[in-house]
């Protein structure tokens, strides 16, 4: 049932055909160079030193002994670092996280805060000197514990209204035939992209050049220029290959400290975060505490829906994990209340992480829906279909397209949902109890203003230049297909260059908005170029270049609820004697607009669902309850799903055409994780009859929830 | 090679991809850093530097190891193969070709490690090595079929945070010449058949 | 990581004399644990003596039908050795359940026995730790101890030993041979790891500077049907939260001989002698297995956040013994 919808520009049909990655050969041969791998003559190596106290003040940085160590070139800290400009709002509408504006004062707001950068001739010397650097602190009492009744909690907006409310919630709950009132929690989660942050900064011909690993070269360029009070044209940021990002790779301490050191030493300086350092410097998904109250009429129609979410942020930066936003799209109710609250703690600053808000929020609301289905004796899919809203439940705006029902119908058919016995705890295979679960998914389909340059070369080929980023999405390949169709040529005739801030402003790889935003700009420039070519008889040696800017076109787009939707299915096996859980299979069916490259899109959707397994069962960054610092911040302490945790995962999509959208692309980067953890948790309930409302569903939690069997009866072999 | 006990560096020769490299080396330098920082062989990746992700996997004397926990000085006299050395000239190794064709990656950063590991997995399996999911590890049982479950367990030392495991397993299966229900579906329709 | 010297040893006595001459010297085997600890700053050796080229890489059958395993045999080579697979399958299973294929290719038998705890406080130099810095305290007791010891720990240290291999060796009464400046010696594995008490930094009975040369497995027919089961927080590539190595010999429905060792519950692989005593001579049924588990776990002293391990180990012991009994009955 794989279908693709040809958009207005897809005349030649490259879009919608499976293509291997343009940079694939480089990636499988090791030839693709990532940020920390580009050689520079006279390169020096910086190593960050992080605070060991959780809150306090730096009393002294004992630089002298370290400066005397072999190879050490300088030690930067708050006593000698240049002052930065931090009072601004960046490209994405947010002020900079002070964690990135390093060494500006003596305050330590959390454990793992950058306090110094040691620069030396070799990485070995830098590391040894950084370990040897003695920093003394005045330590102060700290508060790092998130709990539901924290007095410091407040309503916070972030990228959406903090609170929405209509109807009388208590009245509708009282009138409901069946009700769910439960608290759900998700832990601190780390992006854990395979490539840690890395940047090399140098001054070249009066320009600051930064080779970085980021999700938006133009974004980072703008932030660095503002922070260092430089003219934007005198800063160039390049980011060719990126070893994963997931929200973590924006402006971070590594670029800023590298620029400082390169400026101080007047030579290239590379700063690479260690895996441990990424835990406090790379951002993370805040833990959430969510309360969901649902009330339904006997037929399952929602009368009352309340979703409140609390997340933590640092004392220096406000970040809202907008988990309560999910219900503003997916479900209506006569009384409907949603609220996102935050509390400032002495912890590192959280940030966007794959489906911010939707990932934890969908766990809570989709698990609660499953509980409601159980209470009402209604099939979980049927319950969702009965509550599909006609218009945005909060906005009242029409949907550009909403094909959730089609996803569920197709998914149910393929997963064999009709044969499911709804009773929990009755399927057994050896020591394993088996169960299946489902959940809905949605994720916004947005676009942001972008510019693109498209050049008709004298040899008949085309070059596309756009400050896009390929963080593993296949953006380079997708844009090639899109440009080929828009130019009515073959993909082989199109060369796409990305990851260079000199190509002009463009959306970052984030919010599932990259491909949609960039495609829009590329399509617009290509259309204009074709018009120009139609009036031209010959192409000059330098080619003919057209630049597009989608700002105006985006502004003219009708206000609608624009989202991808999806239906998630999972089968889980649970050994209640040991607490082990294995996901046996998953299926996701999505309505995600036009699929540009089925090969890479499927991979990315499967990747999101793999994150759902990982979120449901494994991931949890642990804080020491006394010091408030991370416990075992590494990839042995922080578990992400391995090969062995990941079963066969099937992904497909349904026709999802949006008539008034000129590109029709919705983005597939995030929707794969939405609802996936809930589907797994719901399957665990179906297997065992026990609801797990706290993620991850660790073996100890399964064991704690299982009634011990009588002596001698535990054997199940 | 016999440095004085007090010396903290040595002049060593590393045999990498069939080429000998002579270099003075700080004893602290790992094989991974020697490759990346000293020899411009940056295909081998640094994901954790602690043996917890597998991105730095290389073959030493035909066996897969993590180069981040190997000291360069201790690798002298051994035959090292990195991702740069697995293809035959312009012709990709079958494992590389399968990763390329079946999209066995996303960001590509774990990919060289996955590929080096997969090459060794296929050899280990052919040599009859059992794994933690092999039903009967006794030698009489013979080598187990290289099922998706076997591939997953054997490849578990290589994390892929993008979550490309499903297509990686298909790529390894194809390269191993196995035609399991999942593996033979590779490249066309994900893991559809196996999910049934 | 501070600068250090490096020497490749070519004979055992040479290696031992290098260590004897320098208290800051360490043997380098596969490096999977030592090099990591050097990066985190827990270990700061002045000299590494590389022992991998010592002639200790062979697995030989002993006169009594047991196995004598060289200390530099890699975990992979030991796991796939036909005699091990045939006669001590739990050892193969334990090895294959550990770490990853890459790490097993590097790690040696001697190094595996000597690996240090993965307690997150031990590896975090900004934290106190009695094992790493004697007398500074143990933050795990009042802090994070989700995967810490429930047996044999003390207020001074609640860390667990991470080895899988060691659990199987403990069930099979392995003997550790070493060479020290005072000559050769040997110690049963059940006495190899010292009680925690108030000296958690003293981990083994090895004399200072001693080099493990061999591990000997006595012949044990009961081991031929042995089994290792490991529970962890993901399906692979993770340390155990609980594991069991077990073997049963059953005659006429009664347990003639039982071997049982537990992993991830104590500062050392834990030989479950109390359980074995209950098992021996008793009917091979669920009631006996549960009573055996309870007898062993009666000594458990869980902390506020690791009590699940008592339940887990009870269930795991019963499950594995039941499986073994079922197979034996076939």
Automatic annotation (TrEMBL), chain A:
It holds the Pfam family MoCoBD_2. InterPro entries: Ald_Oxase/Xan_DH_a/b, Ald_Oxase/Xan_DH_a/b_sf, Ald_Oxase/xanthine_DH-like, AldOxase/xan_DH_MoCoBD1, AldOxase/xan_DH_MoCoBD2, AldOxase/xan_DH_Mopterin-bd_sf. Keywords: Molybdenum, Oxidoreductase. Residues 29-141 form the Aldehyde oxidase/xanthine dehydrogenase a/b hammerhead domain. This is Xanthine dehydrogenase family protein molybdopterin-binding subunit.
TrEMBL record, chain B:
Pfam families: Fer2, Fer2_2. Keywords: Iron, Metal-binding, Oxidoreductase. Gene3D superfamilies: 3.10.20.30, [2Fe-2S]-binding domain. Residues 130-150 are annotated as: Disordered. Signal peptide: none annotated. CDD domains: fer2. Residues 10-86 form the 2Fe-2S ferredoxin-type domain. This is 2Fe-2S iron-sulfur cluster binding domain-containing protein.
From TrEMBL, chain C:
Pfam families: CO_deh_flav_C, FAD_binding_5. The keyword Protease does not apply. It comes from Streptomyces durocortorensis. This is Xanthine dehydrogenase family protein subunit M. Keywords: Oxidoreductase. The lineage of its organism: Bacteria, Bacillati, Actinomycetota, Actinomycetes, Kitasatosporales. Residues 1-222 form the FAD-binding PCMH-type domain. It comes from the Bacteria. InterPro entries: CO_DH_flav_C, CO_DH_flav_C_dom_sf, Diverse_Substr_Oxidored, FAD-bd_PCMH, FAD-bd_PCMH-like_sf, FAD-bd_PCMH_sub1, FAD-bd_PCMH_sub2, Mopterin_DH_FAD-bd.
